[in-house]
Amino acid sequence: MAEQIPVEGRGAAEYAYGEVRRQIITGQRAGGDWLREGDLATELGVSRTPIREALQRLTAEGLARHEPNRGVRVESWTSADLDEIFSLRSILEPWGSARAATSGLAELGRLDSLAVEMDRCAAQERPDIDEITRLNNEFHQLVLEAAGHVRLVHLVSAVVDVPLVWRTFSHYSPEALRRSLAHHHELVDALRAGDPGWAESVMHSHVRAAWSSIRDGQPSGGEPGETPLPATPSTPSPERSAGPEC
Amino acid sequence: MAEQIPVEGRGAAEYAYGEVRRQIITGQRAGGDWLREGDLATELGVSRTPIREALQRLTAEGLARHEPNRGVRVESWTSADLDEIFSLRSILEPWGSARAATSGLAELGRLDSLAVEMDRCAAQERPDIDEITRLNNEFHQLVLEAAGHVRLVHLVSAVVDVPLVWRTFSHYSPEALRRSLAHHHELVDALRAGDPGWAESVMHSHVRAAWSSIRDGQPSGGEPGETPLPATPSTPSPERSAGPEC
DNA sequence: GAACCTCACTTCGTATACACCTTGTCAGGT
DNA sequence: ACCTGACAAGGTGTATACGAAGTGAGGTTC
Fold first, then answer.
1. With a 7 Å cutoff on the CB, does B47 touch strand C?
2. Which of A67, A238, B35, B231 falls between 20 and 30 A from A171, CA-CA?
3. What is the pTM of this model?
4. Continuous segment of H or E residues that includes residue A65
5. How far apart (Å, rounded) are the C-alpha atoms in residues B82 and B87?
6. What are the tens digits of pLDDT across the range A140-178?
């Protein structure tokens, strides 16, 4: 269903990877669903070989799970997984921000305009959540890249995929959103000042606040371990969104 | 050259992955070398399909690099990469140790016997470096598993492969080795005491000391960025060693 | 009636064939 | 002598065919 072009410009494997990943993130493929090689090959109009490559990449990223001689299924996440991810981010991102403050690599102008742009989106009558998500993701990635630490960027982005499935942004209250956007501006100031401690603190607050918003937004905020997963499908955005929280 | 069995018990892809990985870590495949699918298929006695899967896994782990329509080549590391890895470990492993101190998941008996075993190996006339490496790796992995954080274990082990190429252990002075082994015992004590701050400090010292030993052991310890990489082949151990420092 | 066995089906794992891309080389022209 | 274009070779990217393993349904036996 809904195949558009048999093969994109180039790279059937790349195409298959992006498409299946999008389907997982938008909730079209729910946790536990089987990802049959033959079915996907038919639906996407390619052969099984690039499908296998795509599934291997998704498995390596933790979005899917490989069961030997059985097949690949979409990974199921619990709120405990979300806790794991945010606890990791609350270590790695502040540390990266501190490094970015003294590396001299921060593109302050670009970061500032991203923060302003997010303000503009949020101030609209009907805020464009997908656009804010995209901008936010670019902001966070740019900060980490400024840390001058390639592996850090890869590690964090590998772990940031999962929250996307939870549609984190929809859990934000207007108040929490305002505070989150203010954090961005404060972080740019801290980076401009070259103050690693300040930058680290701001990012730490930023991530912890996001974590809190998501926990509170969940139905069962009490028991922090076994919530199955809601997997809100929401509107499947054609834009490949890839941003965590705001 | 040196193919033993065409296909192991089961899994040609698994076999190919392990074999190529071993060749990279032991230095048989130097940084920059091409990993031709056809050649590897012939050498290992399997077809190109499982070879491709193995190369994709190695690429995902960062041991190899994929160049579109060109092929896969062994990744080249500089001392800057080593700095990246140890700086990451000096964040993640202490943090994991602190969590392990209060999680109640630490297998203290097993950890203690591993530390004792390493002492025994080191006290021998001719210390078995490979065995110490193996024990040390098991020790570190067990500590991280005790943190109750699955992704942490995966992230660290994904990043720990690279130092193996550098044969880190050979850079240790007898004094540094003694201190490192003492750290293990102290860490077990800290975990037993359930003191997260103590555990974190010990592990931090442990990793930083290892880092220092390796830097000092390198020929050019001055410029911290562009050392090509020595890639000491040393004795190719049949044991699949997988331990970082001591 | 329940447990076990058999058989067919589904799906993965592997091998192989072919097409396209990239690159190095050589002839021809400037 | 140098640059430019076409041609050939090597290699990856993709498609397809075949074999193996696991699963579930249905029948048989105790």
1. yes
2. A238
3. 0.82
4. strand A64-67
5. 8
6. 999 999 999 999 999 998 888 877 777 666 778 888 999
